[in-house]
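Protein modeling request. Please complete all fields; requests missing the sequence field cannot be processed.
Requester role: graduate student
Desired output: 3D structure, token encoding
Chains: 1
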Amino acid sequence: MSTQGHTAKRLTHGHLVRRLSQLYVGLALYGASSALLVEAGLGLEPWNVLHQGLAERTGLTIGVVSIIVGAAVLLLWIPLRQRPGLGTVSNVFVVGLAMDGTLALLPETHTLAVRIPLLLAGIVLNGVATGLYIAARFGPGPRDGLMTGLHQRTGRSIRLMRTAVEIAVVVTGFALGGTVGVGTVLYAVSIGPLAQLFLRVFAVPSASDGSTVVATGQPRGAILRP
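Delivered output (226 residues):
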């Protein structure tokens, strides 16, 4: 093999390693960020309101519930004709495990002087994590695919599908005992700009030409939830 061929092979290998690293670091940090929001107790992101509510009712950990719900949502991809990627399947397991692992390590907090910084740190870390795993381009999370699948099947906008599904998720989760609060609202208004910022920061150059490619389509449209 020529020197040029060896160089191209090394570049391709390094490119794949970086993407895989970003994927799994991003998913692990996403689970950790969700754990910070749970510990803060000031309101969760929409899907975790549902996960927490189901955890309260079933006695399972919130991470285990996240895995079960993620797997169930992934099954809905079949009639919606969505194709999962490595990132999709990894998302189901890694986020839930990381969430439970982080919660096991965090001490209980009671004062607002600790809970407010935890909330803010959780939201910012969630934006970092979202930028990392989406920029790796290994496929959307299971809940993302549900939104895009409904969009394709119904012809309605992704924003409308996201809003409808997440309102239903929050209402159901709240009724089951999930935490809705100022953190839920703050997360909703800040996660889009944060994730879009970190998508640019963690954009992976193309292996072929060195150009920066973040993801197909509009980044904001991709930021739904893992």
